[in-house]
Amino acid sequence: MGRKGNGRKYKWKPVQETKVNYIPTKKNQRKSEEYCSEASNYLRLGEFRKAMLAVQKAIKLDPKNPKGYWCRGNIYMNLNALEETKEDYLRIIKDLEGTVKLGVKLPHEMEELLGKVYNDLGLVYGKQKNSENQKTCFESSLKYLNSPEANFNLAAVYELENNSEEALKYYEAYLKLEDSFNIEIRTAQIRMELYPEKYQE
User: Fold this and answer.
1) Scanning 79, 112, 121, 165, which has the fewest C-beta atoms within 10 Å of its C-beta?
2) Alpha carbon distance 75, 182 (integer Å)
3) Is 69 within the bounds of a domain?
């Protein structure tokens, strides 16, 4: 169960899929994008029912738009429906990487989306205590999008595995993209642990 913005419970129900074999019109594609934006706004407000209704409209209008499934996956994630979340994220990965295997270069926007989806899928596996799949997802995320989030998440996984050298590597990559006093401190601590001779007086 999830909570609506007003504090009442919202009981989610899995969305029933319908197969649609057609190429959406430009009008439907544009309208689908608008519904995706609307759903994202509702999600930020914690209005999960309204978010789900909007994203269902987006997917119905353009069932080939990966943003619709990413948005719906994010809604499921907020409702802690992890299997449904994984299903939507894995669908996007399968479709977009399938396109790459056909020899078609993804637009930059889709590469970024694929990087974000892999990162979010890693978070799902983290909730499920599946560290190997979690790490693989964060590594795959960085192939498509060198984001602070994926670098930080991967560093944190390596810290849990007591692999300080790899953790340091990804914390340093994080700091190249984003300033963080706390991460600078942690990076310095790891360096001191790994190379104590350099810090001896």
Assistant:
1) 165
2) 30
3) yes
Facing residues of 9 across strands? Answer: 3
DSSP H or E run through 2: strand 2-3
Contacts of 58 (CB under 8 A, 6+ apart): 32, 33, 34, 35, 36, 39, 65, 67, 68, 71
121 close to 140: Cβ distance less than 8 angstroms: no
CATH of the domain at 28: 1.25.40
For the packed helices 108-127 and 148-160, what is the interaxial angle rounded to 10 degrees?
A: 30
C-beta of residue 180 within 8 angstroms of C-beta of residue 174: yes
Per-residue pLDDT tens listing for the chain (201 residues): 444 444 455 555 555 554 545 577 889 999 999 999 999 999 999 999 999 999 999 999 999 999 999 999 999 999 999 999 999 999 999 999 999 899 999 999 999 999 999 999 999 999 999 999 999 999 999 999 999 999 999 999 999 999 999 999 999 999 999 999 999 999 999 999 998 888 765
At 144, which helix (H) or strand (E)?
Answer: helix 131-144
How far apart are alpha carbons 118 and 144 in whole angstroms? 9
Domain with 26, as residue range(s), is 1-80
The backbone region for 90, taken as left when phi is positive above 0, alpha when psi lies in -120 to 50, beta otherwise, is: alpha
